[in-house]
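To fix ideas, we quote verbatim a fold written out as tokens:
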Amino acid sequence: MRLTLLVALSTLLAACGGPAPLPYFPVPFDAGESIPDGGHVEPGPVDAGTPDAGPAPVPGLVTLAGPLEISDGIVPPTNTRLAMLWFSSLDTSAPRRFDAVEDGRKLGEPVPARWRFDVSATPPESARGAWSTPGGGAGLASWGAVVAFRDMNNDGALTVLDDGTTPDELVGSSAGALPFDADGPGVRTLLLWRQGTLGADEDGMVQGFNLVRVTGPLDRPSLFPTSMDLPLPITNDPRLGLMFCPPAFSAPSPELACGQRVFRTPQVHAVALSAAEGFTVAYVQVHAGPRPVFDARVTLDGAVLPFTLDGTYSLIELSPRVLRAGHHQLRVEAPYHEALNLELVLPARPHVTAPAVSAQLQANQVQWVKWDAVPLANSYGVSLFLGDSPGVSVESLQNEAKLPLPAGTGPATLEVTALSLIAAPRHFLLGSATTSMPVTLVP
């Protein structure tokens, strides 16, 4: 139990960042290729949706189009244009503003029923970020969001001032206020540009442009053909201004910036433990920016987790009824935030096949420890404790590990822990199940 508690609780209370990025490597275009590669480009002609729309648009590298959806109660905006914001990262644990803008055409007046955006350039190098996936994907990626804005200074472009603000007014977005809405609820539609090695978990994607949609906080993007009708909502949501709000990008992320709540959902760190002794424990921490939230409603499979004096929402079951091996639904409702639904996975306790219970192990040697693979586990920890010593530990992605034994002798405890980790940029969920057995170290 000692390994489980120490590893899980220290991980829960520590700041959890995103995965380490791969080193940047340039991938040159083929010789003679003349595809433009820049930030701002000259805006195209007026949208071909009205009788006086002007000349037909020049086809781009990829064309996105679909209906304009104006929310109820919204007065159709005037002097409205389109733009593509390119992001090298949507990591909400360390939010970064967009890296480049490609300007599009002006919408007709009155606002037409449909919109169209011709992407005329690949994202510039400044908007390409290191990319990797669990399925072996590697290389570079860039995320593009279509936005609609009122051209307040009539310069024909989405203006970005030196301080990161804009005089223009954002009235719509295909993906909300990025990157702050990247892992929240709601539908987010993005143009994903990929270059490099495509992983097994990027099935169907191609080098270059891919249209993807994300519908939940931890959902994988779903792939769609770029020819699909893409609704663009006009909402006049003031949160869209966060993309041009420098204080929102400060570290640590604030709870409020520019008069808006930076993240629509709270940040959640959760740990579920299945101890060798047979009882189970769940700990959940909730934050709004750097502020701990003490008045949230936290439920696990419908069971309410009460708030405790140690600053967590906790459930302890000596005879587990709720917290058993398997998938569990965690719901967090914090005041002034939207509700957040996450999955917490608790693996079963491992069955150790070597060494045997009460085995005599030779001190100061390397011992093979083996166990049956545990469904739902994605890593393991092995530890040995001898008396009051701090113990020795190793980690493994397989169901076996070499454990260097200490030089001391006497009765010891061997622990094998199955771990199921779900780490999103802002949210951290760990399931941990431990098997403990006595052994003896001999000279």
About this structure: DSSP finds one helix and 29 strands in the chain. The radius of gyration is 26 Å. The chain has a mean pLDDT of 86. The helical segments are 2-13.
